[in-house]
Design a protein that fits this description.
By secondary structure, this protein is mainly alpha-helical. The chain is built from 6 helices and 2 strands, in the order H-H-H-H-E-E-H-H. One of its GO terms (biological process) is response to stress.
Amino acid sequence: MRSTSRNLPQLLGDARRWFEEGLLAALQAGGATPVSPTQAQLFAVLDDQGTTVSELARRMGVTRQTAHQAVHGLVALGLLEQVPDPASARQRLIRRTPEGDRAHRQAGVILERLEEQLAERIGRETVDALRATLEAQWGRPPSPPPPT
């Protein structure tokens, strides 16, 4: 029998926070510049060649203002920079600085370690099955039913 107390989006959110908290704690313990969860999420959705603030906001599921604030905080820390977008004179691209690249690589190593720790706790087969499920093509979200 399935428990109805927590829905799947809540459980996925908890899983994301588990990784996020582990990442931020490991970065802090390693002496890295402290960042907020929103700033860490921004790093995760940033393309190597640069991304506009509007696109970052869309990928993060936040307002443009929230993404802009996170970008400015990371620019002030020297982890991101704003450069002209060659495709549009009106837009700017956000990209990692060399220090931001170093931090991004460090975060990748930490996330691999966290995944290994998770596999030790719940089993490698379970983690592999979870990964395969999340990597599967789910298709577009279903359309809402017509009003009755």
